[in-house]
């Protein structure tokens, strides 16, 4: 019933308005959800991280454009058979409801990211949002006062596109946050957050 699909960085996964023939769980990578504005610009409306669900049972068409921010692997299910499985499996329905509520929380978090006034706040908020999600998926990581090491799932270019900033601005802000001791930049997309509480305080959030 399930099958896996892999998408290289930048490849479209689905287009808004297309028939929703498949639903999927994100196995690895980051999926960017966006909508096209009246002037033709694409606006990012959310990010899907591993364990998030793409698509909605019962919805006949795709709600948003979806694309791969980096390499993405999806565990896919044909929508109609999946809906029949849900009808016969109350525990799966309950789990899907939990995932839907998680996505609502993630959508609110993303609105918070985009609502930040300065480029520094936007970059710091994105780092904190992704780090918090990753620590939630891996119990024991990111405890208060302990450094959190992670392979950040977005390139700087993808961060810039998602945040509505230039690549140069993102690079400058990452450098400034590193100089202020809020993060340590490693090779590639590797980075460390010396204390996630300090990063949370930078954006006025509770850790």
From TrEMBL:
Transmembrane segments: none annotated. Keywords: DNA-binding, Transcription, Transcription regulation. Residues 1-103 form the Cyclic nucleotide-binding domain. The keyword Transcription applies. One of its GO terms (cellular component) is cytosol. Pfam families: cNMP_binding, HTH_Crp_2. GO terms for molecular function: DNA binding; DNA-binding transcription factor activity. SMART domains: cNMP (SM00100), HTH_CRP (SM00419). Residues 117-197 form the HTH crp-type domain. This is Transcriptional activator protein FnrL.
């Amino acid at each position: 019933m399930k099958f896996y699909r892999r998408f290289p960085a930048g490849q479209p996964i689905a287009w808004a308005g297309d028939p929703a023939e498949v639903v999927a769980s994100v196995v690895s990578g980051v999926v960017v959800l966006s909508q096209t504005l009246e002037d033709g610009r694409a606006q990012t409306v959310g990010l899907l991280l591993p364990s998030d669900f793409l698509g909605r049972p019962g919805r006949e068409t795709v709600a948003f454009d979806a694309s791969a921010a980096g390499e993405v692997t999806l565990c896919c299910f044909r929508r109609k058979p999946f809906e029949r499985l849900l009808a016969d499996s109350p525990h799966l329905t309950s789990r899907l409801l939990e995932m839907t509520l998680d996505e609502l929380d993630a959508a609110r978090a993303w609105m918070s990211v985009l609502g930040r006034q300065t480029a520094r706040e936007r970059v710091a908020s994105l780092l904190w949002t992704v780090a918090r999600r990753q620590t939630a998926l891996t119990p024991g990581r990111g405890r208060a006062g302990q450094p959190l090491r992670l392979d950040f799932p977005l390139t700087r270019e993808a961060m810039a596109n998602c945040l509505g900033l230039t690549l140069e601005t993102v690079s400058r802000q990452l450098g400034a946050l590193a100089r202020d001791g809020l993060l340590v930049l490693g090779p590639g997309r590797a980075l460390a957050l010396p204390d996630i509480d300090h990063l949370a305080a930078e954006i006025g959030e509770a850790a």
